[in-house]
Amino acid sequence: AQSVAQPEDQVNVAEGNPLTVKCTYSVSGNPYLFWYVQYPNRGLQFLLKYITGDNLVKGSYGFEAEFNKSQTSFHLKKPSALVSDSALYFCAVRPPGGFKTIFGAGTRLFVKA
Amino acid sequence: EAGVAQSPRYKIIEKRQSVAFWCNPISGHATLYWYQQILGQGPKLLIQFQNNGVVDDSQLPKDRFSAERLKGVDSTLKIQPAKLEDSAVYLCASSPTTDGLNSPLHFGNGTRLTVT
What we know:
The structure holds 2 protein chains of 2 kinds. Chain A has a single domain, classed as Immunoglobulin-like, CATH 2.60.40.10. Chain A has no helices and 12 strands. Chain A has strands at residues 3-5, 10-14, 19-21, 24-26, 32-38, 44-50, 56-58, 64-68, 73-78, 87-94, 102-103, 107-112. Chain A is globular, with a radius of gyration of 13 Å. Chain B has a single domain, classed as Immunoglobulin-like, CATH 2.60.40. Chain B has strands spanning 5-7, 10-13, 19-24, 31-37, 44-50, 53-56, 65-68, 75-79, 88-95, 106-107, 111-115. Chain B starts with a strand and ends with a strand. Chains A and B meet through strand 5, strand 6 and strand 11 of A and strand 4, strand 5, strand 9 and strand 10 of B.
């Protein structure tokens, strides 16, 4: 079955420190990979995507993500966290051949000042 | 560009009542999705439209849920009768197929449904 796993319910980091939010997926073929962020009482907002090419992709608000095909992972990273980065982050995959998008359960990021 | 519009923002109903949600996608977006997001979980796809045709409704509880997109633009999702476990946020999203399969989803702010 196609699935996305975000192994951490919550990630806590201090402001100014680097952050990583983990994501692994189980999809056959070469899927498209996405990260979204959700602030309270809002819909999901697109951060970045991996299609092909360079394994490190850059997105909005200084976020980047590293694709690792052998480990089927797509971890979200930021070199220096801000308190305003505190939110709920979702990893998503789109299997080849269609527009269906499967979401992980989400990881809550808490950045402490 | 204007974003995805959803209404109402909040709805409280009693079990066995009916409810309807409305979504207007971004202009020109051919693909429209309805997702259910239960507290503490990721969004789960209920139904996907391509223009006014259904592409995927495999996870839609068809005995109580229905959705339509008659003119290929706005869409309504209905629940009848509602159950306690339907309490969730219902998210509408759209994407432009002209940008290809790598186009991200654009989400509305959702409708929070509470069934008592």
